[in-house]
Amino acid sequence: MTFVAIIPAGGAGTRLWPLSRKSHPKFLLDMTGAGRTLIQATADRLADLVDDLIIVTGTAHAHEVARQLDLDDKSIVIEPSPRGTMPAIGLVAAIVEQRYGGDAVVGSFAADHLITDTPAFQDAVRTAIASAETGKVVTIGITPTHPETGFGYIDVGHETDVAGSFVVDRFLEKPDLESATAYVESGTFLWNAGMFVARAGVLLDALARFKPELADGLRSIAAEWDGPGRDEALGGWNELEDSVIDRAIAEPLAEEGGVSTVPVSMGWSDIGGYTSLAEHLDDPAHQVAEGGSSQPVYLSGSDSSVVYSYDRPIVIHGIPDAVVIDTGDVLLVTTKDAAGGLGGVVSSLPEGISDLR
Amino acid sequence: MTFVAIIPAGGAGTRLWPLSRKSHPKFLLDMTGAGRTLIQATADRLADLVDDLIIVTGTAHAHEVARQLDLDDKSIVIEPSPRGTMPAIGLVAAIVEQRYGGDAVVGSFAADHLITDTPAFQDAVRTAIASAETGKVVTIGITPTHPETGFGYIDVGHETDVAGSFVVDRFLEKPDLESATAYVESGTFLWNAGMFVARAGVLLDALARFKPELADGLRSIAAEWDGPGRDEALGGWNELEDSVIDRAIAEPLAEEGGVSTVPVSMGWSDIGGYTSLAEHLDDPAHQVAEGGSSQPVYLSGSDSSVVYSYDRPIVIHGIPDAVVIDTGDVLLVTTKDAAGGLGGVVSSLPEGISDLR
Hints:
Oligomer: homodimer
Shape of chain A: globular
Structural class of chain A: alpha/beta
Largest interface: A-B, 39 and 39 residues
Mean pLDDT of chain A: 94
């Protein structure tokens, strides 16, 4: 069996601005002081399991990704433009199909998630591979720890022939708090963390049924990828349909019983904002922004603050849950509660700051 | 008549830290962007009225005071150590008594107050001088604009023979809010801004009655001040009693009917903190700390904030009434409400920040 990990390394988001920004999205950063960037940690976790590893990213970050992971051109797939997770993952799956055959198993793992229990992750991936070899598209589902409204959920059915793998009855959109609470209390729902494992051929054949033009387009590009026709074939990229893998394959296939899930508790986080980030820092109040130096920080009536210093000491007084991020070129002052609305702030930054997005 | 203004230029306080600090207290700073430092503005307001001007300050700031006001040594009285307002003002009054005689009128005006209506101030000083020439110790009283609990109050009695000058029935300590509200509503109470006007001889003779040793000590030093014996005479400074002029003279003399007050509305402020400072800034959200350069500031859900930038843009989100002060060597993040407690914060700053007090 051949197993190839796909790591989509896409946009920066805004909820960790200004630490994470277009020019250095969080997957390129050591967000938790672990000594490895998020994409490095993602690759590290997979190293023992994979026969090959392919990153799919944009032109802006391809060089830095290759540098951080010490990869050659064959392991970096550069999207001409972002068109959603389905074309990105689908193209790599089609390239794997060309290189290793359709029975090769691919697994897609986000570049910017955090997982603290690596053995649990690896066990889950092994189970997912076993389930994928029975012809399923497999999603790794996270046992929920709280009624989070920011994630989609997986409604789990009966166990499959592969122990630890369960049929997915359906995928559920991000719920309201009442529904989320009910899901978590039921004990039969998982968080959908967007990690998919499947045979390359199974994935592309499913896509060929649900979105035949997209599957054709991706397979056509992949056929030329390792030859002289790549650039010409990529000319068709911009005509591909924008889509995400959940909508394009997982949801319709789940209705047919074709999707399974492997539940796991592994200290997973998508580090979706400063509150989430703070939970993974040894000392949220004394972080150093990239390029800066450790500075004294004094908190008075400002417990539970998240502070990144750069080149000057910081004193915070009387703001519980303050978020103070000094990156040297810009200073953000907000609170954990308010930071959920950073997207609107970042999109409306005025001239003189907007180029720091 | 000879009128000599005394400007005590003492400590930094803590309520405007880190803008105002020991090394550059607020009187040496242009706090409002007026183009003049507070001590310069104080001297400017008095220029038309005075025959002479004497600053009393510590060794740390004597040079900078002389530079800012273009004064020679004769106009700077350096205290060997701070011992409260009574020894400071009393020493200068005694020097004036030596130089100009006891009938010369002295007036003491803080170096770090803000007054927006200079003509009203000057009229009040002229009235105070006239009242002082009748033998009174005169205090300039501020017509209250709100029930402030941070100031002492003056209980005003009947008008004296000098129009616009009223007998002080008594001085009242800083009140609670209920008392302050009652004072303001009564219409017969003024804020005590600590500005005193009196004949030098009257002031010192009063002191000689209430604190004879202190008066003797000050007059002994003053007798040698302009001769070769100054340094030797100053040896007695450290044995003088620490005291403030309100307790030492104003309160006991008021009980005898010896104090008058001139009520005035003149846009007075002691700039006692960031809330007070903000009221005197054209644009509190876009100030520049000394030595810094103007930077973009973006406020989102953070109206009424006070922001001093230094060398990087600042984004504040979701903190109404934020106070964000970047002085380049330290960053303070607080709120207008919390800033009232800055004293405790500054006194407990840890190593690495404490030297920035």
